[in-house]
Amino acid sequence: MKTFKSVLTTVFATVVLMSCGGEKKKEKESFSYEKESATNKSEVKEAPAVEVLTDKEVAPLLAKNTCVACHKKDEKLIGPSYKDIAKRNYEDKRIVELIYKPEPENWPEYKVPMLALPQVPKGDAFQIARWINSLK
Question: Could you tell me the domains of the chain?
């Protein structure tokens, strides 16, 4: 019984000492797509001057940024085809905004809404947007 009391006392003392630490602990910042999307949307300015990529050149960008998981050039998949997006006549800047903050109400015929993709670098987004608009 004496051993149990000493173990219990040691555990209690350790807990008290750990919780009374002198330094402030930083709270983890929670991740939010909305927060990131709003930030990225506000940063979207004019498209940088870049040439339109060929299908072969844009393919690695589409794969790296997971666009190919939901979109194809000529066919509907989970989302609209790139050609269908081009038919909407969005400016490059608008396509980039929609990458960062999608508006599912623009495509009600699709059951799965697009997720925000804040990890896509702005330069990649503009190159993809310019390529999409070249498909008109």
Answer: 32-45+54-136 (1.10.760.10)
